[in-house]
Amino acid sequence: MNARDHTLADFARTQATLPGARVPWLVSARQVALERFAQNGFPGARDEEWKYTSVAAIEKRAFVAMSPQSGHDQAAAALVEQFALTGAFHLLVFVNGRYRPTLSAPGRLPAGATLKSLAAALESAPEALEPYLADDRSDNGQTVFGTLNTAFMADGAYLHLSRATVVEQPIHLLFIATQAGAAGALICPRNLIVAEDGAQATVIEHYAGADGTVYLTNTLTQIFTGANAAIEHYKLQQEAPQAFHIAGIHALQARDSRLSSHSVSLGALLARNDISTRFAATGCDATFDGLYLVDGRQHVDNHTRIDHAQANGTSRETYRGVLDGHSRAVFNGKVIVHPGAQKTDARQANHNLLLSRDAEVDTKPQLEIYADDVKCTHGATVGQIDDNQLFYLRARGIEETMARSLLVHAFAGDLIERIRVTSLRTRLEQILLARLPQGERIRELS
Amino acid sequence: MLKISKLHASVEDKPILRGLDLTVNAGEVHAIMGPNGSGKSTLAQVLAGRDTFKVTAGEVLYQGRDLLPLSPEIRAREGIFLAFQYPVEIPGVSNVYLLKAALNAVRQHRGLPELDAMEFLALIKQKMALMEMNDDLLYRAVNEGFSGGEKKRNEILQMAILEPKLAILDETDSGLDIDALQVVSKGINALRSPDRAMILVTHYQRLLDYVVPDFVHVLSQGKIVRTGGKELALELEERGYGWLEESAPTTAAHAAAKS
Q1: Both A69 and A201 in a single domain?
Q2: Per the domain annotation, does A372 fall within a domain?
Q3: Residues A70 and A217 in one domain
Q4: How confident is the model at residue B252 (pLDDT cuts 50, 70, 90)?
Q5: Which among A422, B66, B68, B111 has most CB atoms closer than 10 A?
Q6: Which of B45, B90, B143 to mutate to test the interface with A (most CBs of A within 10 A)?
Q7: Which domain holds residue A398?
Q8: Are B24 and B47 in contact (CB under 8 A)?
């Protein structure tokens, strides 16, 4: 059986156990998605969007969808303890793709805010979700994995903010993959964030897994920002080193709304992010920040897309990567300024630091401009540690490995500093220092 | 302190230094002047250990030891300081981090204890006041967005903090207005001492009005072609370098013999 047929059979086997199995519009949306998958199959090398990222290893492993109860409690609790952030959060924990109330601490949310598991929402009031989940634009037409997510989505977080609701504490969505429960599994979380006019929240999507476990996370997040709403979104990917991680984050922005997306990729053998937003009205603002630190045989692919579909929009995109070992990174950043999107102000930059001769980067900024009164810039660099900087530091008595560590720290730190959630920023700073040969000594300097 | 004998160095197989001799003793200030391309900056970089320059022949003894096999960081810890002609900008590394890392490394090498945070800050503030630098420069990234004058002051600040035995100042005067030149000169003069030597690499004698050298050497085509006292700089200012290149090179050994 080939990988596509295997997946179709898996769907036939599990569809009745998926949440919303008796909700007609959802059954139909899953069916439509599955048919699209059946037509396209997994992407191959001829697919322009997957030119530098092969999913052959995913096909070969034939991951299967999970049964709902799997996941060892003690192991899950230990992982939650390991990956939880310090400080006050609304915490929702998902173990092997399913919400686990006993490990979660959602806390009290302000009136006007709803935060619950997607499966629970589909159980209690599915009609509220229909306009979003059944929306064919959910994956922006970019990836077949988005359709696969719609077919198999089992759980995730549902956040709804009614008009002018402000959630002060960040919301932490922690997705844990356990050794016993996740081995060989296809895990399809689906998150839905709907912020009505003037609403604000900060959401951290965090993926982590038990070392040694091979699984596929295929996650999809939809973000809808109403007029003047502001969503600050963080994604921290710390999957098991042997795992596969495919993620989509797709936003649709109404007038004068703000979205900031920060994506940090540290784990997984193969990771792919498709992050997009569409300015559906004037005056929107988007910040796309990304950081990837990879080593060994890791492969990380970031595809981003910002659609300036209306005028007076501003976008700022900064992606940086540090590559060591035989790792490989792909960056493809599309900025599309549609006809009539005058006074668009868009900047994009992708910078890569190679620490090894065997690391490789393919970077492709892609600007398409169909309006004439716009300001757009982009730049991409791939380079090694700067010899002049290195010599300057050494000439001051700083030993070579320390000098290199300082320079890598400075390069990656630039993006970490932009993270506004203090405990997340501190955590990333610690992770970065732990990866540097002289990280401990750099820590002592501060 | 420093004895350079018949030093040859090249970059990408192009010979730059061609048999340079120079002896510098503790307490002395030597100015090295010469036309563009004569090898002044190459000499400075070779002494600091830049590996883009290959030493093909000759010897450099520093405090009686062979200097050439040492890495740049060991040279710095042993007391060699190069003030860069073009100080390098290092985004993301703050000046204070650099100073602390450098001072820790140097003190550790010299068997001195690390300064605690209070002592360190007090030292830095005192030296910054000498260089008439604003405190905010401390927390900015190394040289990033600094004016030409601020960069050069920052070099002298680092020198003042690291207290080298042999300071090599590569065109520290270039790009400075007269006020900045005075501040930088004051900083350099404050570091003159009987147990410290300095080599001033400069194109013009302007700096030498403020930092008066004991010896002036003229470098031409990779060799020292003339050595004299501070009056030689004035003569060069008047007559240029052309007349020296025609006359037979004198030996730099005079300088060595005198000292």
Answers
A1: yes
A2: no
A3: yes
A4: very low
A5: B68
A6: B90
A7: 386-446
A8: no
A399, B105: Cβ pair inside 8 Å? yes
- Bridge partners of A203, per DSSP, are A171, A233
Which among A394, A413, A414 has the least Cβ separation from residue B73? Answer: A394
Rounded mean pLDDT, B144-161: 95
The answer to whether A400 contacts B87, with C-beta atoms less than 8 Å apart, is no
Asked if A247 and A272 touch (Cβ cutoff 8 Å), the reply is yes
Q: What SS3 class is residue B208? A: helix
Task: Map residue B48 onto helix, strand or coil.
Answer: helix
- Residue A25 resides in a domain: yes
Angle at A69 between CA A68 and CA A74, to 5 degrees: 140
- State the CB neighbour count (10 A cutoff) for residue B173: 23
Please identify, among A281, A310, A340, the residue that sits at the C-terminal boundary of a domain: A281
Q: Cα–Cα distance between A350 and A107 in angstroms, integer?
A: 38
Q: Which of A320, A273, A312 is nearest to A415 (CA)?
A: A320
Distances (CA, A) of A350 to A62, A111, A346, A404: 34, 41, 14, 21
For residue A385 the two structure tokens come to 């540690």
Q: Is residue A327 part of a domain?
A: no
Which ipTM was obtained for this model? 0.94
- A94 in Cβ contact with A118 (< 8 Å): no
Of A236, A261, A281, which closes a domain?
A281
Confidence class for position A69, pLDDT limits 50, 70, 90: low
Domain match, A272 and A399 both: no
Contact state of A392 with B84 under an 8 Å Cβ cutoff: yes
Beta-carbon separation of A399 and B73 below 8 A: yes
Q: What average pLDDT does this structure show over A211-221? A: 97
Query: Do residue A201 and residue A63 come from a single domain?
Result: yes
Out of B84, B91, B101, closest to residue A398 by CB: B101
* Nearest one of B119, B155, B120 to B137, comparing CA atoms: B155
Q: What is the reported pLDDT for B96?
A: 94
Asked if residue A160 lies in contact with residue A128, where contact means CB atoms within 8 angstroms, the answer is yes
Residues A391 and A276 in one domain: no
What's the domain count of chain A?
Answer: 2
Q: What share of chain A is helix, strand, coil (3-state, %, to 5)?
A: 30, 35, 35
Whether residues B49 and A396 touch (CB distance < 8 A) is answered with no
- Quote the minimal CA–CA distance from A354 to chain B in Å: 17
Q: For B212, which DSSP code?
A: -
Q: Are residues A99 and A237 in the same domain?
A: yes
Q: Which residues of A touch B76 (CB under 8 A)?
A: 394-397
Question: What is the pLDDT confidence band of residue A142, given thresholds at 50, 70 and 90?
Answer: low
* A131 in any annotated domain: yes
Bridge pairing between strands B215-220 and B197-201:
unpaired
Write the CA distances from A342 to A151, A258, A276, B168, integer angstroms: 38, 18, 20, 56
Task: State CA A284 to chain mean position distance.
Answer: 21
Cβ contact B76–A397 (<8 Å): yes
* Residues A395, A247 share a domain: no
Which residues of chain A lie closer than 8 angstroms to B158, CB-CB?
Answer: 396
